[in-house]
C-alpha cells in the first residue's frame, strides 16, 4: 500500500493540473493500492512545514519507505514514478 500527500496552494491552474496528473497516474498504476491526501498549504501551513515542503505542488511518498518527494506539475509519469521510487505495472508485471 502506498501512502502519499500532495501539497498545493488553493485551486490554481498548476495545483489542479498536478492533482489531475497524480490521480490519473495512481489510478492507472496502483488502482486500490494507495491513499492520497491533498493538502492546501494556505489552509494547513503546519503540515507543509512538518514535511519540509518548500514549494508547491509537491507530492510526498510516505510509505513504503524511504520518503521521497517530487516537485512540479507531475505530468511526466516516468519522472514521477522514478522520483517517488514507485514500481509501474510494467515493472511488476501487473495488468
What does the model show?
This protein has helices spanning 13-30, 45-50, 77-83, 89-92; strands at 2-8, 34-40, 58-63, 68-71. The protein has 95 residues and is an alpha+beta fold. The protein has one domain: Glutaredoxin (3-Layer(aba) Sandwich). The chain has a four-stranded mixed beta sheet. The model has no long low-confidence stretch (mean pLDDT 92).
Key features of this structure:
95 residues; 4-stranded mixed sheet; alpha+beta; 37% helix; 4 helices; Glutaredoxin; globular
Radius of gyration: 13 Å
Mean pLDDT across every amino acid position: 92
Structural class: alpha+beta
CATH topology: Glutaredoxin
Say which CATH homologous superfamily is assigned. Answer: Glutaredoxin
Strand neighbour order, sheet with most strands: 2-1-3-4
Strand content: 25-35%
Helix content: 25-40%
Total strand count, please?
4
First-last Cα distance: 17 Å
